[in-house]
């Protein structure tokens, strides 16, 4: 493991995203992480080299130092495999694609809404509009004098739409 991985954490950016209710847990987590970093930094990056010649001169048992040296140098401690970086990278790519799609759809909605706002701004204000102007702009909701309706002027309460009742024309 490299020591650079722990230094890549942007704590201030994380702190901005932590809600107030979770602030104490975040501070405790950061303290644990800082303590781990201090303990890691106290140790050298690589194991110090042993002075095997010193031990051979000072230990009288024949072959013991050679045996220890052979075993020590053949010892390989396997580093745990990294099973999660590829999953996190794949998740990041998937999320970034979703965010890109969302941004594109949002920009399309913004453009559509902007066009609608511009269209509404160019319209004649309702306060200056005549009934004929309203009928020309909104024929689907304007009152048609050739086909009168009854109050509340919605299609579901009109006589021709009620079952079993004759039309009033």
Report the span from N to C terminus.
88 Å
Radius of gyration: 39 Å
- Give the overall average pLDDT: 85
What kind of oligomer do you see? Answer: single chain
Structural class: mainly alpha
The parts where pLDDT drops under 50 for at least 5 residues are none
Coarse shape: rod-shaped
Count the helices. How many? 7
Helicity level:
55-70%
- Quantity of strands, as a count: 0
Order of helices and strands: HHHHHHH
- Estimate what percentage of residues fall within beta strands: under 5%
Biggest β-sheet description: none
Organism: Ooceraea biroi (Clonal raider ant)
Region (Disordered): 145-169
GO molecular function: proton transmembrane transporter activity
Subcellular location: Mitochondrion inner membrane
Structure description:
Residues 88-123 form a coiled coil. It comes from Ooceraea biroi (Clonal raider ant). Residues 145-169 are annotated as: Disordered. It is found in: Mitochondrion inner membrane. Keywords: CF(0), Coiled coil, Hydrogen ion transport, Ion transport, Membrane, Mitochondrion, Mitochondrion inner membrane, Transport. The protein is mostly helical and 169 residues long. It has a domain at 130-160. The protein is 56% helix and 0% strand. It has seven helices and no strands. It has helices at 4-7, 11-17, 23-42, 52-58, 64-74, 85-122, 131-137. The radius of gyration is 39 Å and the shape is rod-shaped. The termini are far apart. The model has no long low-confidence stretch (mean pLDDT 85).
């Amino acid at each position: 493991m490299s020591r650079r991985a722990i230094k890549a954490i942007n704590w201030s950016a994380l702190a901005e995203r932590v809600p107030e209710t979770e602030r104490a847990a975040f501070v405790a987590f950061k303290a644990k992480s800082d303590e781990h970093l201090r303990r890691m930094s106290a140790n050298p990056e690589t194991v110090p080299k042993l002075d095997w010649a010193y031990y051979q001169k000072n230990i009288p048992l024949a072959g013991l130092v050679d045996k220890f040296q052979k075993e020590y140098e053949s010892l390989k401690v396997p580093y745990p495999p990294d099973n999660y970086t590829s999953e996190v990278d794949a998740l990041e790519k998937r999320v970034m694609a979703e965010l890109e799609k969302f941004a594109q759809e949002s920009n399309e909605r913004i453009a559509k809404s902007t066009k609608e706002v511009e269209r509404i701004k160019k319209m004649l204000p309702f306060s200056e509009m005549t009934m004929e102007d309203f009928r020309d702009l909104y024929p689907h909701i304007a009152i048609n004098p050739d086909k009168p309706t009854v109050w509340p002027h919605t299609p579901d309460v009109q006589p021709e739409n009620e079952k079993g009742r004759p039309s009033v024309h």
